[in-house]
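Technical note accompanying the year-one report. For the benefit of new consortium partners, we illustrate the data format agreed upon in the data management plan: each record pairs a sequence with a structure-token string. No post-processing was applied to the example shown here.
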Amino acid sequence: MIFIAASVVLAWFLSSPISVFTTIENTKLAMNSVDKKNNNGLESFEYDGCEEANDCECVALIHGMGDSAYTWTKTLTASDKTWDKPVYFYAVNLPGSNESKALEDVNNYRVSAMADLISNNLPSRCDKWTVVGNSFGGWLSIKLAAQHPEKVKGLLLMGSAGINADYSKVAALFEDPSEENLKAFQKLAYAKPKSIPSFVYSSLSKRLKSMPVKEMIHAQTKDDFIDEDFKNLKMPTYLVWGDKDQVCPLDFATKMKELNPNANLEILKDCGHLPQKECFKDFAKNLNSLLKVEGEQVESQVNVQ
């Protein structure tokens, strides 16, 4: 009987690895008291570590293009002792990701429009939020802070896109998410890429082709670059960058630091494009540091960890 059950599970995994991954992640989140919600077509995962605390920090987590809120599973399921303050986490799935509805008007995939959408869907738990964004999610986070500064008290940006730069190499990989291109992207994204079976890449390719990735890429205009927005931000901001990030390389962080000298630049050794997954302890350390700052501007500094 056990052999039959194991065979069924193996067959399921081989035929639908993404479905198996989703089931495992959902189970893991549910077992750690993370609630799955859907508001106005946007799916989110929310964890309330502030139930009996007056001093509550609300943190919004925004994932990158072609990714999902599952990128924050380690964050959402971490022990409360990981955080120096009680935290309420809100991890949104961007339109077209997982169970979030795709947008009917492709123009609404502009970062300015999606930033408004996220702002309108932030839970009422807090008036002000610390916003954490990775990659394209960093771009959205900056737009959110620029367009709704009254809601954002701090920013933590990891491998953020958004500055006026050449994205053609990475964009080409997303526009044609073949197995070969996904393998190439993984080498760019991770300091230590893991070996992934071909059938998993095949499933990932099908998933990405079903998502509005091309629409997001082509919706952006030169007016959507964040150079001027970032230059004018006043809230405490951390730039957390893996020194092995080849998707949004360290040069991006250096330019952002030049645009806004008050931002803290934290360089993570032997880390790639996804610190929340590959270098979680360093990510958590920096989030705790930002949360301590609260409404005060941090002293400018550059640290290598």
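Partners are asked to follow this layout when depositing records. Residues 17-31 form the longest helix (15 residues).
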